[in-house]
Write a structure and sequence with these properties.
four-stranded antiparallel sheet, about 50% helix, Alpha-Beta Plaits
Length: about 200
């Protein structure tokens, strides 16, 4: 991953496990996300679902990342990559350890490697935000995007305090209302397409 670059992050539970079994699990994971990912990346959108997760991040300035405590003795690009990898590893390992203790289980919870796909255009950026928020609806977990409580959708269309880069996301769409309308229109477009072929 490169500095000042957007990535779509996604990760999945080992079948047939779930990553989250309760509201407390979702809350705890977000706490760990804030602890381990915020030092290295800004979060623009996310969605947590029972067996997988999606997030849109922007990797921070290389200089800030290289100054993180505990990594000053590493060198060059390897050093930078090592820090990013370590922070994501710490996130997933820390959550797995707590999850295993809570549910009296052993072993890995996540599949071996998370995915990080670079966002390469403005259109990709806006579409991936919708894709992330639409995931629970796509998987039949809710009847509308706004019904799913474990995503950034509500934070992005409200004025409540949030860790999400809300102003930047709203600015990308133009306004908060434009962001909301984009989601609604995209859902209608998908429904019309599905009705056409069913």
């Amino acid at each position: 991953m490169e500095p000042f670059t957007f990535y779509h992050i996604y990760h999945h539970a080992n079948d047939p496990e779930n990553l989250f079994r309760s509201d407390e699990n979702y809350r705890f994971f977000l706490e760990k996300w804030a602890k381990y990912i915020e030092p290295v990346a800004d979060t623009y959108a996310y969605c947590l679902m029972p067996n997988h997760l999606h997030a849109l991040i922007k990797v921070k300035d290389e200089k800030d990342i290289l100054n993180l405590r505990g990594f000053q003795n590493l060198e060059g690009f390897y050093r930078y990559e090592k820090i990013l990898s370590k922070h994501f590893s710490n996130l997933f390992n820390s959550y797995t350890k707590a999850y295993n203790k809570m549910f009296h289980r052993k072993g890995s919870l996540f599949t071996p490697n998370f995915k990080a796909k670079e966002i390469t255009s403005d259109a990709y950026f806006t579409n991936i935000i919708f894709y992330i928020h639409h995931n629970p609806l796509h998987h039949g977990l809710c009847s509308h995007i706004a019904d799913w409580p474990h995503s950034s959708y509500h934070a992005l269309i409200s004025d409540k305090l949030t860790r999400i880069k809300r102003q930047e996301v709203q600015g990308w769409f133009g306004t908060k209302e434009a962001l909301r309308k984009f989601h609604d229109q995209a859902i209608k477009g998908l429904e019309q397409l599905e009705n056409k072929f069913t």
